[in-house]
């Protein structure tokens, strides 16, 4: 498995830019590339123990991090500007942290983190911190009895902004898998539901919500001395039929034993489950609307030294218009390489692809590009390329065009709203005029009838 320290975040823009966030000597680096050229990079914050990043609908990067001194900080990175503040402080000497997770819902913030206090390193407390635009609230979700270096939980959010949680905790002599759901509408967590069978040992839980809000849960079960993958799909989970869940657990087809570290992603309209068997990676695929999975496909042999966990921010990746990739694996030296999407077989093949890309840029020296990729432990290397300046100018121009486009879209929307309001007033005015005319017509008839009665009355009086 890739080291917990080795976790990078990437974001592809529609204009071909790549935002790359990663740790170098516990310092968070934000790097912007285009066509394999780094033309801007900055050190955001140092002494990071845990961190997580999310991208909102406005293109702002939200970053939460726990520093070595115990501060939980939260900040925004946008338009090459970085601002942050300290939310709270923990006792760093007696507290351990694991799996900091961040979710953004409009201007509301959800932070999940597992905390372990004192000498009992196997007992974790899962805390949920929530910002409702006015106050910070916190909730003690559950206690997790897990191993010291285990990943205590995994979480994902559906399109209705509910949080789905999966975790591994010891019950009796075996570790079991539990599921919980946070309902945003009521701000409550459901009771824990054990979805694994009590007679076996279970590990490596993973949870994923697709674009149709089906919940996919995967984990590994130790059966007859070997790990086998289990899979459960919950289509709009019905908590009144929990007993049926266990009957729907299926075994993922495998080529051989000891399958671990399952994960899932959505690419356009298909779902992909990936897992490891030693250093070998495998995948199965199915269409979003199909019940059947493909046969297992061997991807690549990739050891933990060269691999890195990767999260794709946003729903765009290269030529794909929609993806959801909370956790994937790729090569450490290649910022944008996702196992299960990009076609490669080994590290040499990847290097060959990058070299071929470099050859297309004849005006750029090869040694300069190699220098641009290097990040040392002592310093962040500047970009020494004159060509990078041109790209930066192009990027700034594109950003200005994008801002002008956003302003025009905002103006058009305001005009549309104003016209819509004027049209509504016009319709109401026409309705009032019509009503007035109807009342006037009725009154005219009444007036004629009344006048006729008065005339008849006078005629009767004269005749008498």
Offer a quick outline of the entry:
This protein is of the alpha+beta class and 464 residues long. Helices cover 23% and strands 44% of the residues. It has a six-stranded mixed sheet. Strands 13, 14, 15, 16 and 17 form a five-stranded antiparallel sheet that branches.
Question: How would you describe what is shown here?
Answer:
With 464 residues, the protein is an alpha+beta fold. 23% of the residues lie in helices and 44% in strands. The chain has helices at 242-247, 347-359, 366-373, 386-463, and strands at residues 7-12, 18-24, 27-34, 37-45, 48-55, 61-67, 71-78, 81-89, 95-105, 108-117, 123-131, 136-145, 153-157, 163-171, 174-183, 188-189, 193-194, 201-209, 214-223, 226-235, 250-251, 260-267, 270-277, 280-287, 297-301, 307-312, 323-324, 328-331. The chain has a 6-stranded mixed sheet. Strands 13, 14, 15, 16 and 17 form a 5-stranded antiparallel sheet that branches. A 5-stranded antiparallel sheet has the order 25-24-23-22-27, with no helix packed on it. The protein is elongated, with a radius of gyration of 31 Å. The N and C termini lie far apart (117 Å). Mean pLDDT is 80; it is low at 1-5 and 347-392.
